[in-house]
Request: fold
Amino acid sequence: MVSKQADSFTVEVIYALPEQQKRIQVAVSPGTTCIEAVKLSDMASFFPDIDLESVKLGIFSRAVKHHEVLEPGQRVEIYRPLIADPKDVRRKRAEKAKEEGRANKVTGGRA
Reply:
């Protein structure tokens, strides 16, 4: 008879801030979802700002849903909320370039 322990595998859960990061390995059973692995890692006890209900997750830089099932060797990444919308940042940078004469005011191309 095969025990449940033999069926389990290890995945890594990681969360990074600008000044620090934490990596925790957890043993999970087949069928374990991404959010279940995050909860098993107890990462929220180290970083109380993580909202487990709305947190964005990924596997090797690919966004995933909370209910996606894990495979052996995967790394679940917990993403922080964006500080600024990338589209707004690009738009402001382009407007500034036009004002400074570094970009064509009509086409937006380099002057």
In short: Helices lie at 4-7, 34-41, 43-46, 86-99.
